[in-house]
Amino acid sequence: MQTRVFQTLAHVARTGSFTTAAKASNMTLSALSMQMKGLETELGVDLFDRSVRPPKLTPLGQAVAKQAEAVLAQQRVLLDLCQSDDELVGHFRIGFISSAYVRVLPRLLALAAEHAPKARFEPRSGLTENLCELVEAGQLDGAVVSHMLGSTRQLQFDTLALEEMAAAVPVDLKDCSIAELTVACTFLQFTPETGVGRLIASIVSEWDRLPKHVIVLDSIEATMEAVRSGIGFALLPMPDIDRYLGTGIVVLELDQPVERTLAFASRPDVLNDRWRSKLNDLLKRCIGDSV
Q1: CB of 187 within 8 A of CB of 234?
Q2: How many CA atoms within 13 Å lie on the side-chain side of 78?
Q3: What is the rounded CA–CA span in Å between residue 23 and residue 1?
Q4: Which of the following CATH numbers is that of domain 162-260: 3.90.1150.10, 3.30.559.30, 3.40.190.10, 3.40.50.12160?
Q5: The domain made up of 3-81 is a member of CATH 1.10.10.10
Q6: What is the pTM of this model?
Q7: What is the CATH T-level fold of the domain 90-145+268-290, as seen in this structure?
């Protein structure tokens, strides 16, 4: 009996859905269903009531899932006890907001191969709010997210970088002030449902003059290309602007400096402090190298 099966069962118990659990486990729905059938055969009991749709855990199934969670927790404790203090070792499920997924993840995998060859990473991308939910639920060990003060999440947020916010402006409007831009062209608002989107919305709300026209976009690349095409201007963290900066775009500093906090979110009761510290150090190197 492999702990991988327990991980899948735990995902099903947390989400109440084979489909959602399959996505969280990077499995097809049929593969997950077969894995659960195999576990039931090995245990000699029915863990799911399949007379309803979607199938639900039986009372016995819920008890087995609870014990599976305990086994997985003990497995992590054993791994921590047996690990060296000098290197990062283990399997880490790490989430990334989309910009970090592009900028940071490739460098993380390259650095880990060189400096932490015994560490394995299972990455996934998502919005800050969704990633934090997955960390709280134990479906991720941690996540690189945009952090705003006042979060009610029961998570530890370790700052990885402070990134200056700036305006990306079409070159033809390089001599305009922010106030003039709100009248002269469209404001390209990065989706407010994201962490950085909420920060942008809070910055805009403080302006004396609000933009007359707004287009909401959910892609940094699309936002920057829209700026390049002269469609409008946008507010973004400088590292994201720099990544797509080129002909047709200039950078305008904000009158009042504002920084986006890029942080590593984790559950205090899951990651040993020394491993959290090593992960943070590795991520900070990745972010520094990617800027």
Answers
A1: yes
A2: 6
A3: 22
A4: 3.40.190.10
A5: yes
A6: 0.72
A7: D-Maltodextrin-Binding Protein; domain 2 (3.40.190)
Lookup: tokens for 112: 């880990």
Instruction: Tell which residue, 40, 33, 39, has the closest CA to residue 55.
Output: 33
Question: DSSP for the chain?
Answer: --HHHHHHHHHHHHHS-HHHHHHHTT--HHHHHHHHHHHHHHHTS--EETTSSS-EE-HHHHHHHHHHHHHHHHHHHHHHHTS-SSS--EEEEEEE-HHHHHHTHHHHHHHHHHH-TTEEEEEEE--HHHHHHHHHTTS-SEEEEEE-TT---SSEEEEEEEEEEEEEEEGGGTT--HHHHHHHSEEEEE-TTSHHHHHHHHHHHTSSS--SSEEEES-HHHHHHHHHTTSEEEEEEHHHHHHH--TTEEEEE-SS--EEEEEEEE-TTTS-HHHHHHHHHHHHHHHHHH-
Paired sense of beta strands 249-253 and 156-170, if any = antiparallel
Maximum distance among all Cα pairs of the chain, rounded to whole angstroms: 74
What region, left, alpha or beta, does residue 138 occupy, with left being phi > 0 and alpha being psi -120 to 50 degrees?
left
| Amino acid at the residue 276 | R
Q: What is the pLDDT along the chain (291 residues), one digit of tens a residue?
A: 678 888 889 889 988 889 888 887 777 888 889 999 999 999 999 999 999 888 899 999 999 999 998 888 787 777 666 666 677 888 888 999 998 999 999 999 999 999 889 898 989 999 998 899 888 877 788 999 998 766 667 789 999 999 999 999 999 999 999 999 999 899 999 998 888 999 999 999 999 889 989 999 999 999 999 999 999 999 999 999 999 988 999 999 998 899 999 999 998 865 567 688 889 999 999 888 655
